[in-house]
Amino acid sequence: MKVEVFVPAHITGFFQIIEDSNPLKMGSRGAGVVINKGVRTKVKFSRSDKQRVIVDGVNDFITWKVLEILNESFELPSLKVYHELEVPIGCGFGVSGACALGTSLGISRLLELPLTVNGAASIAHRAEVELGTGLGDVIAELNGGICLRLREGAPGHGITDRIIHDPLYVVCKVFGELDTATVIKDPKSRDMINFIGSGMLKRLVSNPTPENFMGLSYEFAEKTKLLTRNVKEHFEIIEEEVIGASMAMLGDTIFALSKEPDTSLDNPIIAKIDSKGARFIQ
Amino acid sequence: MKVEVFVPAHITGFFQIIEDSNPLKMGSRGAGVVINKGVRTKVKFSRSDKQRVIVDGVNDFITWKVLEILNESFELPSLKVYHELEVPIGCGFGVSGACALGTSLGISRLLELPLTVNGAASIAHRAEVELGTGLGDVIAELNGGICLRLREGAPGHGITDRIIHDPLYVVCKVFGELDTATVIKDPKSRDMINFIGSGMLKRLVSNPTPENFMGLSYEFAEKTKLLTRNVKEHFEIIEEEVIGASMAMLGDTIFALSKEPDTSLDNPIIAKIDSKGARFIQ
Description:
The structure is a homodimer.
Chain A: E1 2-18, E2 27-45, E3 52-55, H1 61-73, E4 79-85, H2 95-110, H3 117-131, H4 137-143, E5 146-151, E6 159-162, E7 169-176, H5 180-185, H6 187-197, H7 200-206, H8 210-223, H9 229-238, E8 244-247, E9 252-258, E10 269-272, E11 279-280
Parallel strand pairs in A: 3-4
Antiparallel strand pairs in A: 1-2, 1-11, 2-4, 2-5, 5-6, 7-9, 7-10, 8-9
Helix pairs in contact in A: 1-2, 1-3, 2-3, 2-4, 3-4
């Protein structure tokens, strides 16, 4: 018995942090794009007495956090959880959210826990909020598309929407990591992010196009001063070739929406927009 | 230039009607299953001066209603809208909702209207509510899965959830039509539906399994006295072979969830659960 889940990666373009003492109601509003590369999570029963989490050989806090939360309500048997990452961690692809969601959905199905999709996803969202690793990736990764997070929070509380678009490529290049928790826990960064981010959703809803999403994202990266030198330099190189480009929030990563897979970026990650969201493989 | 949309059919198992003077907030709560057969809608520009709607050769009120609502806000050019039905109309498959949603999504993309997915789907929901042809199919068809409609209304207002399940077949047999509008507009039927339907969602959320969904659905069909003789007779024949069976709300149609595609039903419609929801074909 084995369950496999694919959770697509999510790149945030702009956002705003909404505080709440309840982790299921805390989160971010904003917009991002979900891509057809992400995290494949396999969950199976383990013969050993120890719960085991393997993440491409790296120990993984978020997955343990999900197991800890599940253990509060259910007596979990010994399990193996294995994540295969198709995009790098710490670079703005929402990998922690994808690992968390893959784990909670996978275990729910394997053990036939009395959880709905929203229930399992809420555990993943709570794990993210409590560790400070993400605020809106889980709900976006569950839904897919160029995803607007209109109301913050876990699935069931948060409200999402999507932009209608022609098929598009998402072309990315990673320069390095940024620590999401450090940025979103720093009061000065938060104030700046919330000041710039608020109001952007309304501007996107009134003109819901991929071009406008990318334009607002770049404006957000510039005005919040989160824009890195690497992203700025490469933005100037590819600006003319693509529909729009900006910085992945939060990673030293440039991402662009484009009609064609080819750009001037060296060694890019090339994906398509994923409109389906998290799903079981068989 | 042509846009093609696939909208999966939705079979309601049980429901409850929630009134509101705002059609976007009116709708139904309940649960149903979305299947991988449905309606394929093609939208393209027409050379003729007349707007043209073709529905497998039959004139279609719901599609005209969507065009009428779109015309309130946008000056539509001459268009052709063509629906290809993979399931019968009037038999509890939510075909009117699928035609409405395919039309609004397709036209939004073809004309690059300033509408998000929720915005386009809201127009389809409003068309359904105003014609009385459906109350919750649009949001379910947009989301897919064994779909719980926890809060009524159009996408953006309504809240949905899904049951986590192994891959399953949906086996159906159609005996005849029922007129949804007649049933949901009759005060006596409404009272009975609401009396029986309220409380069922809570029972499903606390034990969210395909078995429980089907059990509650049959209980609903029996207690509301909507259960037809055809469905009752065939229920007794296939009960042992499947996970559960009940009557499609609203059609003289039996539907069953099953691990295998084969049952004792003659000339069945055999589908799988569709977890992706409405989508553009390229």
